[in-house]
Design a protein that fits this description.
With 403 residues, the chain is α+β, with helices and mostly antiparallel strands. It has a domain of 107 residues: Methane Monooxygenase Hydroxylase, Chain G, domain 1 (Up-down Bundle), CATH 1.20.58. It is 32% helix and 15% strand. It is built from twelve helices and 16 strands. It has an eight-stranded antiparallel β-sheet, sandwiched between helices. Strands 4-9 form a two-stranded antiparallel sheet. The protein has a two-stranded antiparallel ribbon with strand order 5-6.
């Protein structure tokens, strides 16, 4: 009798877990229950497996969540080809520039607390930036207006990454070793203060080190190292247990190999720089994470600032972040918009107006469609950046929406 009762309890517990999902993960639902076609959504498997079979990626993970529930969560291929280790749902990956939205959330927390204003000159916090000039072959020009915190969030700051084609500026970034992982964020901004801007602030959109400057700003305004601020203000409240600036020894077995062309090894966990805690905590590209962790971050954004009863930002703040903030006449290269930390689709077309998201250098992607109550995370580990995974699954996923 006791054995039967125990079995009944275990059965009921399993049923409950299947409904609510594991701790730290959104609950699962059938595609039909969230207004999607299971038959069409199955096309994602065919498309991604094709990339693996054609050796375009070693492995991949795709998560589709709608109406707060996971409708699709599949892994493909290998996280380590030589070791024959398949990609797993909790595989740790290099998220690179998908760090930027997290840094932007940290900045907006300080904004809500009244510690900064978006149109504050950056030079109020980095006095060295008062001396900035704008590059010109005929002689560097004075700033027409100061660089602002909003400029940093929108990539209209005049900064660059040092490898986009302006030979003189590129050379200066390389000579000063702006991205020395063994130097501090303060060292980085000091170096940037000695290099002319690529253009006048607010006049162009140009992808740049702006989020790394924002990381320094978070440290200076909060008085906390960036990793501590992230951990206490974002990761712990969202239960993001595997997101950090390095991979601790006990998690290395879950850290994927990063591949390059023809699936040659670009970065192996056994010798990766990510095994060591960096001196420079890059708010622009330094984090490693997992699909479940980043899904929780995205669900917080889609929920307009809160998850599981924990509020990180006010609803109106998230709405502002997801609106195009580029000055009139300024667009991105693909004619899209940019909010406070991620791209924003400004027109309806093949994909919906209002969709926002971003990607990372190792070919990771996420996007959120408030119109469809939809989150998609599509991850691979392939250098240099490729949009092939996103391009393969995005049309299928939108076509799967029934209502």
């Amino acid at each position: 009798m006791k054995t039967t009762r125990l079995m009944l309890i275990v059965t009921l517990l399993c049923a409950v877990l299947s409904c609510i999902g594991y701790a730290g993960q959104l609950s699962a639902a059938s595609p039909k229950d969230v207004g999607m076609s299971a038959e069409k959504l199955a096309g994602v498997k065919t498309a991604v497996q094709g990339l693996v079979d054609d050796k375009k990626v070693a492995g991949a993970t795709v998560v589709v969540a709608r109406k707060g529930k996971i409708a699709f969560f599949e892994t493909f291929g290998m996280m380590d080809i030589a070791a024959k280790k398949p990609m797993a749902k909790d595989t740790i990956l290099r998220f690179y520039s998908m760090t930027k939205p997290i840094t932007s959330v940290a900045v907006m927390m300080l904004y809500e607390e009244g510690k900064i204003k978006l149109d504050d000159p950056v030079s109020e916090y980095i006095p060295r930036f008062k001396e900035l000039k704008v590059y010109s072959e005929s002689g560097n020009e004075a700033l027409k207006r100061p660089m602002t915190i909003r400029d940093l969030l929108c990539h209209t700051s005049g900064l660059t990454y040092g490898f986009f084609g302006n030979t003189a500026i590129d050379q200066m970034y390389r000579e000063k070793n702006v991205f020395d992982r063994e130097s501090s964020l303060e060292d980085m901004v000091d170096k940037l203060g000695e290099i002319p801007l690529l253009y006048q602030p607010g006049t162009r959109w140009h992808y740049s080190v702006s989020a790394d400057v924002l990381g320094y700003l978070v440290e200076k305004v909060s008085g906390r190292p960036l990793d501590e601020f992230f951990e206490e203000r974002i990761f712990k409240p969202l239960d993001m247990k595997d997101t950090a600036f390095y991979v601790p020894a006990e998690k290395v077995d879950r850290f994927a190999v990063c591949y390059s062309f023809w699936l040659s090894v670009f970065d192996h966990p056994a010798a990766s720089r990510y095994l060591k805690e960096p001196v420079m905590r890059s708010g622009g590209g330094g984090l490693v994470s997992t699909a479940p962790d980043y899904l929780r971050f995205c669900q917080m954004l889609l929920n307009k600032g809160q998850l599981d009863g924990k509020r990180l930002l006010r609803a109106e703040t998230v709405e502002m972040m997801a609106e195009n903030q580029l000055p009139e006449g300024v667009t991105r290269e693909d004619s899209g918009g940019f909010g406070l930390g991620f791209s924003v689709r400004t027109e309806d077309g093949r994909f919906p107006k209002g969709e926002y998201g971003w990607g990372g250098m190792a070919s990771t992607h996420f996007w959120i469609s408030p119109k469809h109550d939809l989150i998609v995370i599509a991850l691979s580990q392939r250098m240099p950046y490729s949009g092939q995974l996103e391009d393969a699954v995005k049309p299928i996923i939108y076509d799967s929406i029934l209502e």
